[in-house]
Amino acid sequence: MSTCETCGPNLPTSCDCEYYADDLAALVEALDLKDAIHVGHSTGGGEVTRYIGRQGSKRVAKAVLISAVPPLLLKTEANPNGLPIEFIDQLRAGVLADRNQFMTDFRIPFFGFNRPGAKVSQGLLDSFLFQSMLASLPATYECIKAFAQTDFTDERTIHARSLPHRRDAPDDDVRQLRS
User: Fold this and answer.
1) How many domains does the chain have?
2) I want to staple 138 with a disulfide (CB 3.0 to 4.6 A). Which of 11, 22, 41, 89 is the partner?
3) Are 51 and 38 spatial neighbours (Cβ–Cβ below 8 Å)?
4) Which residue has the higher pLDDT, 87 or 69?
5) pLDDT tens-place string over residues 45-85
6) CA 93, 99, 101 angle in degrees (round to 5)?
7) Is 179 among the domain residues?
8) Does residue 178 fall inside a structural domain?
9) What are phi and psi of 27, to 5 degrees?
10) What is the mean pLDDT of residues 79-94?
11) What DSSP state is assigned to residue 45?
């Protein structure tokens, strides 16, 4: 289940990375998981790091972050290379105007399928669109704030071995959407 789906149709008072991490903690506790391997992609990477930052690693064997959100995506005084709030606002406006069309268009650069020589998987594109439509409109809208405006810099102190994956490369398609 994606982090944007966890808020479900009845949006809680807060649908942010703290909520996602607390939701994950409740699931781990309910299932009494020990030595679990947590895998997070995109916003889910933020969820995993926030979970470990809040709960510690006593129930975590490993954490795998795949193309996870950076410590801070939004442009701020402390992060001058981040995305401007106007770009984030355009994403939100696109979701509000026509969520289905927004997700249809967004899935191409999200997976890098607009790059020369990319092998497009129609099944993956269809799956992304289907999963995107499972999340409620308010949760999808709030998810943009969660991945774009949450500051994960405190979680950088989590001790882990990592294999870096650069999503901030000059040809990063999601970042190029702002152009």
Assistant:
1) 1
2) 11
3) yes
4) 87
5) 889 998 998 888 899 999 988 888 888 889 999 899 999 99
6) 105
7) no
8) no
9) -65, -45
10) 94
11) H
* Per-residue exposure over 69-97, b if at least 16 CB sit within 10 Å of its own CB, e if not: bbbbbbbeeeeeebbeeebbeebbebbee
CATH number, domain of 97, equals: 3.40.50.1820
Cα 179 from chain centroid (whole Å)? 21
CB 153, CB 71: distance < 8 Å: yes
CB-based burial, 23-45: b 16+ in 10 Å, e otherwise: bbeeebeeeeeeeeebebbbbbb
Tokens of 39: 């895998």
User: Which H/E stretch holds residue 62?
Assistant: strand 60-66
For tokens 């909520």, name the residue.
19
Q: Beta 60-66 vs 36-41: how paired, if at all?
A: parallel
Structure tokens at 78: 């402390």
DSSP secondary structure of 158-170: S--------SSST
